[in-house]
Amino acid sequence: MIEKNINTLICSLDYKNYKTEIKTADAQDSFKDGVIVLVTGYLTGRDKLKRKFAQTFFLAPQDKGYFVLNDVFRYVEESEIDTVSEVINGTEDVQSEVLTPDPGRRSSTC
């Protein structure tokens, strides 16, 4: 039931009539011959409002080509960009925290 509601909402957004402008596209080999892809750019609708977005998806291999196993799409607001810039440039005062491993969680091996 939830999946049907999500699909109905996405279809109602009329993305077929949006113009997409890709700024960056990065891909990297991943788990079991899959590929992780990160795309950034702009979407412009009929209202001519240009909105920044970021999308990450995982392409899982199949017999002929790939299929999208996971897909995350997000609009990026200007205030979010400013906050990230401040953190990267070291202007935000962040208290250091010691991270300890969760004993119930498997650790990765390199």
Topology:
Blueprint: H1 2-12, E1 19-29, E2 35-44, E3 50-61, E4 66-75, H2 78-88
Antiparallel strand pairs: 1-2, 2-3, 3-4
- Major sheet: arrangement of strands: 1-2-3-4
**Could you say what the CATH architecture of the domain at 18-79 is?**
Roll
Total number of helices: 2
**Can you tell me the CATH topology of the domain at 18-79?**
Nuclear Transport Factor 2, Chain: A
Keywords: RNA-binding
Organism: Solanum bulbocastanum
Protein name: NTF2 domain-containing protein
Domain NTF2: 1-75
Model description:
With 110 residues, the chain is an alpha+beta fold. It has a domain of 62 residues: Nuclear Transport Factor 2, Chain: A. 20% of the residues lie in helices and 39% in strands. Strand 1 and strand 2 form a beta hairpin. The C terminus is likely disordered.
Short note summarizing the structure:
By secondary structure, the chain is α+β, with helices and mostly antiparallel strands. 20% of the residues lie in helices and 39% in strands. GO terms for molecular function: mRNA binding.
